[in-house]
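Record type: monomer structure entry
Structure origin: computed from sequence
Chain ID: A
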Amino acid sequence: MELTDKQTRFCQEYLIDCNATQAAIRAGYCSNSAKVIGCQNLTKLNIKQEIDKRKAELSIKTGWDIERSQAKLLHAYDVAEEHHQPAAMVSAISTLNRSHGIEHLVGGSEKTVIIISPKAPKQVENRVIESEVEDGDSV
């Protein structure tokens, strides 16, 4: 089945940041339904095949593949750890998690906060926070 113009644009946009919601918005889908449409698009075989084809072409063209990308992110994490930069460590791990599809550590309504102490950068602690912030939104 041939892709529509919006679906083709979605594939192009998805390769920018691998964020289906943002790719749907940039491709011209309504922002109110972009999350659903983006998720649906990723389940459609013809769209998935087009994205995979474009990823392979990009990898060949640039000489950059997932293994090299992950190695660089792990190196960035190690450098950040060595220099006691917890924000950079979290950023590297978050990016690695996204590349593996592990964006959420817990499901349901619980919120997880990862705390990395600058004095002990290898120590990672998960805590469920059940407090309210000033504007009334749950943390």
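Annotation 1: The beta strands are 112-116, 124-128.
Annotation 2: The chain has two domains: 5-62, 66-128.
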